[in-house]
Design a protein that fits this description.
Elements (H helix, E strand, L loop, with lengths): L3 H12 L10 H13 L4 H36 L23 H32 L15
Helix pairs in contact: 1-2, 1-3, 1-4, 2-3, 3-4
């Protein structure tokens, strides 16, 4: 039987990831501090702490991958008409946004994917918090298990 204190700690571990909106890297600092201080108290707290930290590391990794893929598309679109060999300064430099290119569509699609992934991430954190509150184990989908 899991007591209410352990359920509350596991819930706060998941909810502490929202501290990133106040503290830089709070989504890592909060869960790591709560988990490290309380992991010996219960296997339930240990399991939820590992899941929260693994999920945040996985989300960071996925965001880096999407960003690495999408940023070059925007850069290529901006500098498409710029001639680096015959460059006479910025007085003739202008950006034509009236003609969208396939690169812009791909980059925009990846940006939209990132926004959708952020909304799903928030929903999964809330779902994990509710599972911890009810005393159930929760496994985040698409999470790489860095901590086992």
């Amino acid at each position: 039987m899991i007591d209410n204190h352990h359920k509350n700690l596991a819930t706060f571990i998941h909810l502490s990831t929202f501290s990133r909106f106040i503290i830089p890297f709070g989504n890592f600092i909060g869960p790591i501090v709560l988990w490290a201080a309380n992991k010996e108290k219960s296997e339930f707290i240990d399991q939820h702490g590992k899941q929260a930290i693994n999920f945040q590391i996985s989300v960071l990794l996925y965001a880096i991958i999407i960003g690495t893929i999408s940023v070059p598309f925007f850069i290529f679109k901006l500098f498409r008409g710029l001639d680096f060999i015959d460059f006479h300064g910025f007085h003739d430099f202008h950006i034509n946004v009236g003609e969208p290119s396939p690169l812009l569509y791909i980059g925009g699609g990846l940006g939209a994917l990132a926004i959708i992934a952020f909304i799903i991430e928030l929903a999964l954190i809330v779902r994990a918090s509710l599972a911890a509150r009810d005393g159930n184990n929760y496994k985040y989908p698409l999470t790489i298990n860095f901590l086992k």
